[in-house]
Amino acid sequence: MPEQPRSSLAHRLSLLALAAAGLLTGCASLRSPVTPEPALTLPAAWSTPTPGTAQTRAAWWDSFNDPLLGQLVQTALDQGTDVRSALAQVRQARALRAQAAAALAPSLTLGGVAQASRRDGQASSRSVGVDLDASWEPDLWGANGQALSAADADLAAQQATLASTRTTVAAELVAAYLDLRGAQARSAIAAANLASQEQTLQLTRWRADAGLVSTLDVDQAESSAAQTRAQLPALRTAVDQNAHAIAVLTGAAPGSLLERLSTPAPLPRLAADPALALPAELLRQRPDIAAAEAALRAAAARLDAADAARLPSLSLGGSLGLNAVTLSGLGAGGAGLATLASSISLPLPDGGRLRATVQAQEAVWDQARSRYRATVLAALQEVEDSLVAVRDQRAQQAELATAVNAAARAATLAETRYSSGLIDFSTVLSTRRSLLTLQDSAASAATAEQQQLLRLLKALGGGWNPSDMTS
User: Fold this and answer.
1) pTM for this one?
2) Are 462 and 167 a contacting pair, CB within 8 Å?
3) Pairing relation of β-strands 313-324 and 107-117?
4) Side-chain half-sphere CA neighbours of 167 within 13 A
5) What structural domains and CATH numbers belong to the chain?
6) SS3 letters for 319-375?
7) Average pLDDT per consecutive 10 residues, the chain (471 residues; last block may be shorter)
8) Alpha-carbon span 159 to 434, nearest angstrom
9) CB within 8 A of 55, min separation 6: which ones?
10) How many CB atoms neighbour CB 55 within 10 A?
11) Residue in 353, 263, 346 with CA at minimum distance from that of residue 311
């Protein structure tokens, strides 16, 4: 049989490769593209609605009408370590996205070589060369495109995570600030009661010296004043520790804000209740849900890319080269060389490695779906819990206000009747202790109400909007 020309043989081999590729195309993909978003059944309305009408702003902390609080939150968002770390993750995701986009374009490599050689008894030889190499792998089955889609989703997830981090940092700082002002309010109540108790103690001592009362009254008055005085160190500790937490959130040393925050100030109060969106709208207001959704899209794209990797791939390449004895010779048109090549890669049985890769990515996608659903359900629970807490906290405050007023009247009456000798001193102490306890509880309840409103603001997304994400 006569030898076939090389060109004819190469042509037949190419046709054979393309035919094999066609066969593999029809059977290699064992699954259809995944649906990136799972269907969720959401309630039509909240179980505990509130009449709030104030729309949550991006800088929602300004709604507390406390300039110092606003300054501290802005410092934390500009200099806090958590926010800076999240910003770095966004930059990393953006760079990885650019890397994935570059895989879709041809790559060029420019190289140069210079060499000299000499053999015994012969003149030395020199040569220089410049080569320009190009390569490109067409994205036949969309694997690189899916990798770019995954990188896009990763970037969106990191941007949403940055927004979530900012919301969390702001909420943590506001919570610490509320606790600090609440502890200062309770300290003021304890100090006022202590001053009154010390006056009563002095009067009781005078009356005991005059023989009008026994030393038992003096001991009881002294014990009551000491109990009130004992509350002050714990409240000072709460003030200092919250000041430490605020300083760290702003990226400063723990003790750097003690002097600035040590001056007592009123407890900040939210100007108006936040307006409630429908449960379905919550999905567009929460950055953590947006991050979980983007992570789900990334997992779906990587699953499709892993499946596409089991199909044949085609590579195209070429090079241009110039060779001469000297550099000036290159410019004068040295000897040129041009090559063009193509290759096709056909996956063969590999012991199930590629199939296992797909199965592993399927498991990653299932995990992302579960995390997305869990994030949505947790968000719904946070809103519902906050609504219930705000409702019941306000009911408790109303009852405590009534109790404080009644206790104040009882304490005044008891002191008057004791001065007239109609009752013993233990009744005075009992009414005073009850008043102090109720006043302290009322101050704590006021702080708790603002904390619950803060949690509701955060649960509703903290004023975040998808358009806030930078590209």
Assistant:
1) 0.81
2) yes
3) unpaired
4) 26
5) 38-103+151-311+356-468 (1.20.1600.10)
6) EEEEEECCHHHHHCCCEEEEEEEEEEECCCCCCCHHHHHHHHHHHHHHHHHHHHHHH
7) 43 44 45 59 81 75 93 95 92 87 77 66 65 72 80 89 93 96 96 90 87 86 91 95 96 94 94 84 88 91 84 73 57 61 72 84 91 92 93 94 95 88 85 92 95 92 76 43
8) 52
9) 274, 275
10) 11
11) 346
Question: Which residue in 19, 14, 23, 31 sits closest to 308, CA to CA?
Answer: 31
Instruction: Measure the CA–CA gap between 436 and 186, rounded to whole angstroms.
Output: 10
Strand, helix or coil for residue 111:
strand
Q: How far apart are the first and last CA of the chain?
A: 66
pLDDT given at position 236: 95
Task: Determine the pLDDT at residue 274.
Answer: 85
Categorise residue 135: left if φ over 0, alpha if ψ from -120 to 50, beta otherwise. Answer: beta
Q: How far apart are CA 38 and CA 121, in angstroms?
A: 80
Rounded to whole angstroms, how far apart are CA atoms 309 and 456? 46
Q: Closest Cα partner for 153 from 331, 303, 326?
A: 303
To 5 degrees, how large is the angle CA 444–CA 446–CA 449? Answer: 110
Q: Residue 33: which residues within 8 A CB-CB, separation 6 or more?
A: 300, 304
pLDDT score, position 27: 43
Q: Which amino acid is at 389?
A: A
- In 3D space, the residue among 42, 54, 21 whose CA is nearest the CA of residue 310 turns out to be 21
Question: Which residues sit opposite 131 in a β-bridge?
Answer: 111, 321
Considering Cα of 228, then 229, then 233, then 238, what sign does the dihedral take?
positive
Sheet containing strand 335-345, strands side by side: 107-117, 125-136, 313-324, 335-345
Residue 46 DSSP one-character state: -
Structure-token match 């590579």, residue found = 315
- Picking from 371, 415, 75, the residue whose alpha carbon sits closest to that of residue 247 is 75
